[in-house]
Design goal:
The protein is of the alpha+beta class. The protein is built from eight helices and six strands. The chain folds into three domains: 102 residues, Ribosomal Protein S5, domain 2, CATH 3.30.230; 40 residues, no CATH class; 143 residues, Four Helix Bundle (Hemerythrin (Met), subunit A) (Up-down Bundle), CATH 1.20.120. The termini are close together.
């Protein structure tokens, strides 16, 4: 499910001799995904903290594509750090080249500082105090994120209940047509047997054809399973919690029963045509419900 949360705070970092206040902003954004997929955007000096944040998110969130972004703003004059080794090497190389070619020139400091890596953000020391502050605020952000996701989940629950109500209504109508379809099948069986007898087919062939048609003549089993799966589905919605995978499995079973129902009633005239229409309506409701299920934990 989708959601967004952002928190801001600050913490002290340093080695005890030269501490500084570091402000940070942590944001979480989640979108629909079948599994938990974490993407972290953090400063390079926070590798240890990243592992802690990953563990925290895995404990609090079970499903979704989650983006975490942590930005750090340092106070005072420690915002930039000179790469003395790189700059010193450049200056020395410049002067050696000037001496080699008898040139009277000095290196341009502005040009040196524009070189990649010559001047960068101060890395500072990210200690346990800073990590604890970020983790605490991250828990708050996760709570806000889950609240937003929960609100979206309530809307999805309402939609799924509406789909199940429609599916249940269609199943009831199919149940009412069952007797008529069975009669139509018996007429089809009788017609087929008469053809075999007239064609002087052997007894084993007649019994085989009769057994096949008889097996396909009743859809009661499919109706019972459909109703059972629908009740189970609604029961899981009532229970709540992490039910996304269970609901997805039930929808697969419902779709399988709808396919069997269509297979059994294919080629049957009269009420069989109406059941075909109802079976297609079932599959439509199931497919729409499955689209919603992919977003539920």
């Amino acid at each position: 499910m989708t959601g967004y949360a952002q928190v801001r705070s600050q913490a002290a970092t340093g080695d005890g001799k030269s501490n500084e206040q570091v402000a940070f902003t942590l944001s979480l954004k989640s979108v629909n995904h079948r599994y938990l997929d974490l993407q972290m955007r953090m400063p390079s000096e926070t590798d240890a903290l990243e592992m802690k944040l990953r563990r925290l998110l895995k404990e609090k969130i079970n499903r979704g594509h989650v983006d975490l972004t942590l930005s750090v703003e340092r106070g005072g004059t420690s915002g930039f750090q000179l790469n003395e080794e790189l700059v010193g090497g450049y200056v020395e190389a410049f002067r050696e080249a000037a001496k080699e070619f008898a040139l009277n020139a000095e290196p341009d400091l502005n040009a040196i500082l524009r070189m990649p890596g010559a001047l960068g953000a101060s890395t500072g020391v990210m200690d346990e105090v800073f990590d604890s502050a970020v983790l605490a605020r991250c828990e708050e952000a996760v709570m806000r994120l889950n609240e937003m996701r929960e609100e979206e989940g309530k809307g999805m629950e309402h939609e799924l209940r509406r789909r199940m109500a429609g599916l249940s209504s269609v199943t009831d109508e199919v149940a009412q047509l069952r007797s008529a379809v069975s009669r139509a099948y018996m007429e089809k069986v009788q017609s087929r047997l008469n053809e075999l007898i007239a064609g002087k087919a052997d007894a084993d062939r007649i019994l085989q054809e009769a057994a096949i048609l008889a097996e396909r003549s009743d859809i009661e089993e499919e109706i019972v399973r459909l109703k059972t799966h629908i009740r189970h589905f609604i029961g899981l919605l009532d229970t709540g919690g992490e039910v996304g995978k269970k609901l997805d499995f039930l929808l697969q079973e419902l779709n399988r029963e709808a396919n069997t129902l269509l297979s059994k009633t294919s080629g049957v005239a009269g009420e069989g045509l109406r059941i075909t229409e109802l079976g297609l309506a079932m599959k439509s409701e199931i497919e729409k419900a499955r689209e919603q299920i992919q977003n539920i934990e």
